[in-house]
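Field reference: sequence -> structure
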Amino acid sequence: MTGFPVQPAHRLPRQAPEHRWLIRDLWSAGAVGIIGGEPKCCKSFLALGMGVAVASGTPCLGAYEVPHPGRVLLYAAEDATHIVRERLDGIAACHRRDLASLDLWAITAPAIRLDARDHRRLLEDTVAELQPTLLILDPFVRLHRVDENVSAAVAPLLAFLRQLQRTQGCAVVLVHHTRKNAGNARAGQTLRGSSELHAWGDSNLYLRRQSSHLRLTVEHRAHPAPADVALALQSGVGDSLALQIADVIDEEDEPERNSAPPEQRVLEVLGQADQPLYLRELRRRCRIRNETLCQVLRQLESDGRVVRQSEGWSVAKDGATPPSRTSSDPGPERQCAIPLPDTP
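Structure field:
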């Protein structure tokens, strides 16, 4: 055959469920995409938090599992190296990890230009040598000198990153700004510049500031989007700071709060669900604080009334015994958005 390679559709490879996520519910395995938000919305903190989570195998934002940890390569174009180091030290401490123990690498070149052929070649060579699972580039505006509003100028840069993802097998996170005062526009439509940016992403994360917290919106090309969550910078050991899911319940949700005890609410919601629920969705439906939910799940699991599976939490069948944990099963404590003091 002289044309492009072809294959019958039924022979195309499948992806096993356990390999569909780099960060469960947050970032698809091998996905390219964008972290978008206005200035000072902690986009870099989120990107670095994802990097530490993937490199350490600990839950991102204290809640989103990393099924298969791996090497991370990042380039921070706006921040001095000592600031990046301080942030990474703090985030690693919040994950109860020493930064020196993580397989996390930083490109220290003074500039990277995706619109320059020699720079693209150098970046491709670096990725090929290090073979990272995740590549983080922050921010897009510092990585080129083209007009972001011109599709014909932006598309080749994004195509290069897509090619890098496909040939080297790494996920790519691109940090980018959104327009100011975008109002109630759909999150993806607020990205600054060409619509190519929104269309390019397999997984996209958007941060918006709302009074005392940030709202995280997630988009996926091939998976359902989870419910929005509230985030806040929280302190850990010493002066360490990291983004974590915040205990914030929206004012519009207030009339819908259930006055039943937390244990009853959890059992009612799980009993009515037609499939297991992840912690974030369970918390949204129960409308109770994350720390309380974690404690309730611990107790109910200990009592044999709920079980945690790879697909989420569900009510235990009559007489069922909760499955024993394996080394690969982080347990409910690792799923808590705000780790309790006695958690590892």
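Note: Residues 285 and 331 are 21 Å apart (CA to CA).
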